Amino acid sequence: METKVQPIPASKHIALVAHDGKKAALRAWCQAHQAILEQHTLYATGTTGHVIERDTGLTVHKLLSGPMGGDQQIGAKIAEHEIHMLIFFWDPLASQPHDPDVKALLRLAAVWNIPVACNEATADMLLSSQLMDKEIDRHLPDYDKYLATRMG
């Protein structure tokens, strides 16, 4: 499939997701980076969003809980170019009943070429990047062109 260039804006829409065993770590990470995060628009799956909003005062657009469809809602927002970055503190040591949803979410983040952090160290590196507050170009599938060749 051919690609096209689309910018990721300087003011990013960031999705925050954490498995139950990592919610405290994500909350602490958000508290440590509150000054940066408040410059961007935040989205989160249900319980995670409530915890972050309650304990940091950050404004968070809360979706459904992950197992109830929140992971899929974030995936849809990625596919619709509404989410520009994914911070997902997942628990690799715990079994997750909604593991197929998690895999689909990570796949969509890769397809649409958005930055993803799956642990605290990577999340720190993303936020401290000199590109964090700048518009950057990303290459993504040219789905419109693909459809035109299939439909024409």
What does this protein structure show overall?
This protein is α/β, with parallel strands linked by helices and 152 residues long. The protein has one domain (13-135): Methylglyoxal synthase-like domain (Rossmann fold). Helix content is 43%, strand content 21%. The chain has helices at 23-32, 34-37, 46-56, 70-79, 99-111, 120-128, 143-151; strands spanning 3-8, 13-18, 41-44, 60-62, 85-89, 116-117, 136-141. The strands form 2 sheets. Strands 4-3-2-5-6 form a 5-stranded parallel beta sheet, sandwiched between helices. A two-stranded antiparallel ribbon has the order 1-7. β3, α3 and β4 form a beta-alpha-beta unit. α1 packs parallel to α3. It is globular.
Entry summary:
Its EC number is 4.2.3.3. One of its GO terms (molecular function) is methylglyoxal synthase activity. The protein has helices at 23-32, 34-37, 46-56, 70-79, 99-111, 120-128, 143-151; strands at residues 3-8, 13-18, 41-44, 60-62, 85-89, 116-117, 136-141.
List the helices and strands and how they pair.
Blueprint: E1 3-8, E2 13-18, H1 23-32, H2 34-37, E3 41-44, H3 46-56, E4 60-62, H4 70-79, E5 85-89, H5 99-111, E6 116-117, H6 120-128, E7 136-141, H7 143-151
Parallel strand pairs: 2-3, 2-5, 3-4, 5-6
Antiparallel strand pairs: 1-7
Helix pairs in contact: 1-3, 4-5
Q: Which CATH architecture?
A: 3-Layer(aba) Sandwich
Overall geometry: globular
Topology pattern, helix = H, strand = E: EEHHEHEHEHEHEH
Number of helices: 7
Mean pLDDT: 93
Structural class: alpha/beta
CATH evolutionary superfamily: Methylglyoxal synthase-like domain
For the largest sheet, list the strands in their spatial order. Answer: 4-3-2-5-6
- Main β sheet profile: 5 strands, parallel
Number of strands: 7
Number of domain modules: 1
Low-confidence stretches: none
Percent of residues in helices: 40-55%
Rounded to the nearest angstrom, the radius of gyration is: 16 Å
